[in-house]
Amino acid sequence: MHIDALQEHILQRLERDGEIPLARQIYIILSDLILSGELSAGVKLPASRSLATDCGVSRNTIMFAYEQLLAEGYVISQTGSGTFVSDTVPVADWSHEESALKEKSPMTEHQRYLSKRGSELVSSAQASAEQWQPFVSGVPDISLFPKDIWLRLLRKHWQQATPAMLSYAHGAGYLPLRQALIERLRLARSVNGTADQVLMISGLHNAISLIAQLLIDPGMTVWMENPGYWGAATVLKMAGANIVPIAIDEEGLAPTPEQIAQPPKLIFVTPSHQYPLGHVMSLARRRMLLDYANAHDAWIIEDDYDSEFRFAGLPIASLQGLDSYQKVIYLGTFSKTLFPGMRLGYMVLPENLVDYFAIGLSEKYRDGRLLEQAVLADFMVEGHYAAHVRRSRLRYAKRSVLLREAINEQLGPDWVSSNVEAGLHLVIHLPAGTDDVAIARAAKAAGIMVRPLSRYYLGEPSRAGVLLGYANVPDELIKPRFAQLARIIRSELRA
Amino acid sequence: MHIDALQEHILQRLERDGEIPLARQIYIILSDLILSGELSAGVKLPASRSLATDCGVSRNTIMFAYEQLLAEGYVISQTGSGTFVSDTVPVADWSHEESALKEKSPMTEHQRYLSKRGSELVSSAQASAEQWQPFVSGVPDISLFPKDIWLRLLRKHWQQATPAMLSYAHGAGYLPLRQALIERLRLARSVNGTADQVLMISGLHNAISLIAQLLIDPGMTVWMENPGYWGAATVLKMAGANIVPIAIDEEGLAPTPEQIAQPPKLIFVTPSHQYPLGHVMSLARRRMLLDYANAHDAWIIEDDYDSEFRFAGLPIASLQGLDSYQKVIYLGTFSKTLFPGMRLGYMVLPENLVDYFAIGLSEKYRDGRLLEQAVLADFMVEGHYAAHVRRSRLRYAKRSVLLREAINEQLGPDWVSSNVEAGLHLVIHLPAGTDDVAIARAAKAAGIMVRPLSRYYLGEPSRAGVLLGYANVPDELIKPRFAQLARIIRSELRA
């Protein structure tokens, strides 16, 4: 393609009212052209300002796309002379390439402005902009939420709101909510403890950040499940943790002997429903983990993000309930049981940490929102919470079955990763070497949000696959939308 | 005092239904006895378990008080043999004391559990547990808030809530709110920019934490006003910043030539109403600051926390409005104009940082609460915000006058620090050497919350004084409550 045709090509493909941000669209268009060879190595891209004018978008949009291309190695930037398509055919002579790179010393835009850790955060960003499309994972069916009941309780609490309920919170949050919550956790999750050990916090990320700052110093080692939740890894890295990825097998966390010989200070696990693979940690492995943490004075974070949703088999108790050493910090969230926008989560802490965490919470976040916590306390005490979870569980169980049927019909048996029927998502494993990122990208263009499994791995090697959330897809859409996705998968498998 | 009399003394002084947490009360009682010599050096304190039983409180309560005493050097702990009152009379022979200390190697409870930075956070904690008593600073008069209007808007938005409004937010927050906000900031604060540059964030602490992680790496230097807002310093320290305290003079930030020679990466200022002293940064100083930041590639955080409340004189424009270099990050909050428990603040960013901060926000916090943002957008667009601020301003102006009159009547003229009539608090300066912490403690026991000025200083030397918030004290209580406080101040000055 001659560079003059570029503008026209972009204008043709750009969807101005589409779901995908313009910068991302331009990045996709350009990377497609480079990978296909239509824009060949050495071609100079138009200056961001002029391309922006030609395409009728802001200069920031173009710059953002260029930076992404630069960060991923599609283009190189030479100060003063412009941006050029890279030679993406691998070269044998590494030393030559290295010296060439040094000579050019490309500096991406974000490296210019941001700190090292900031650059790393931005270039490894994973959160989806869109949160409400078929197969988006980790989002419940918000349309089930009993808005009328919530609104009635909101009205009640606003009408009787004292200034203290609208001011800053003192430490651990609204006591009646913490009481209702520990009752529920005792019953549903076999969690041990009292309301004093419960801290309300605005979301899992803030909880992990507080734990990291109070319990570890920069450079200390944290074990993360691999694959695992990238958001937790991001927050821990930002707090200076040295992340060591630990493999997952059928029984759960499976460190190597070398890893075992170097105990970490903190261990992050999802024992009841491994995220994203769905395994349940075996009892033997749980006890080994607790003994190990106790022997080496390590803390364990148990992220029990979606365990209220188990459709078959025996309920699986929390790891915290087994812990006689006071080493487990139990984390939960209302994002999966109620709605994510609420931004309210909770921690159940070992007794000897409670007071420190209450202080740390006040100092680090100066939390508030007591009125909403009072609304939620009523919602739980009046039984609406349990009823809503029960209703949601039935709905999700049905959708899980529908999706499994669709997978069988479209792709045949033996594709789903986990035989544990629980949670809000499942994983389809794909043959080694499948480009799951390309599948996710093609699906996104078709209005389907799946996440590539490879992106959940910290470093190599990774398995290919896609995560599918079924909780928020209307029953009648599951099969047709999956059929669409299956076409994309089959076409990628043939490629 | 014989140790057997301790239980009785504690039971006599303990207020079980009081405002002060029990652990804190016990800490105060014991430290008083040690300082007064009634518990003399070498006396062994009862075991925490038995004292807890005797006093009818939990063991945690006693342990917390003991740890605080240990951290502050009132007692020493010898493993296996117990907790002993320290010799608090200074010793001349330092080397002797040092070796004695080493021998004992006292380790406070929190050092046992927490990281270094966690221990530091907990032992320097400053947030007040009580937020709704006369003269608490930084809290507006929440009783003025038009709850009915808010509730009406809440009902409207809940009734029409789509799932997307209840899911995670995408990056920067709800656009109509950001539009309403930038209009207001342009008008009221001379802030430059567009809605694209506005990011909604759940409070100032989270904003500072995000800035620190995106723009500085551990060990980099940050200038903080001295005295200044301890909460900002805490968050920056937790993010690994090397805090350099910069003195404040009548014109604002006043670095020494040595400090100027070592440019920081980030500068935190409150130019419109220095916190806590109340000075306004002069125009000359503002321009110097902007030129300096630009020349040395430093970022400036402008914390414009309460500038909507100015009762006299010309309005003072934001520093951001003067910045032609795109170096200023402007921060504001609804905590002072609406109510603190809302937990909603905002940043106005330089254009070249906007996209990165939107990504960083999603990755680090996964924000939500779009429905509340929509309510607030309506509240602003319908004019309720401006009306509420205007009404609050008149009320606070009156209370500021009443408090100044009370100070004049009780203590005479020339005590108030700042002649700028603005904000939610003022400072009374006290003669050098006055123990303002003791005043604050005595006031607290009488149900009056004042903050000691010395606590706002990072390192020595500090000035003595007390901060008085007047915004949330009913008109008719200002004079009687201040008379009470004046008695405490006078008695401390005589001591």
Automatic annotation (TrEMBL), chains A, B:
CDD domains the UniProt entry points to: AAT_like, WHTH_GntR
UniProt xrefs under InterPro entries: Aminotransferase_I/II_large, HTH_trans_reg/aminotransferase, PyrdxlP-dep_Trfase, PyrdxlP-dep_Trfase_major, Tscrpt_reg_HTH_GntR, WH-like_DNA-bd_sf, WH_DNA-bd_sf
Keyword Aminoacyl-tRNA synthetase: no
Domain HTH gntR-type: 20-88
Keyword presence, Transport: no
Any GO MF annotation of the entry: DNA-binding transcription factor activity
Keyword line: DNA-binding, Pyridoxal phosphate, Transcription, Transcription regulation
Pfam assignment, any one: GntR
Alphabetical list of PROSITE patterns matching this protein: HTH_GNTR (PS50949)
PANTHER family: HTH-TYPE TRANSCRIPTIONAL REGULATORY PROTEIN GABR
Similarity annotation: In the C-terminal section; belongs to the class-I pyridoxal-phosphate-dependent aminotransferase family.
Official protein name in the record: DNA-binding protein
Lineage: Bacteria, Pseudomonadati, Pseudomonadota, Betaproteobacteria, Burkholderiales
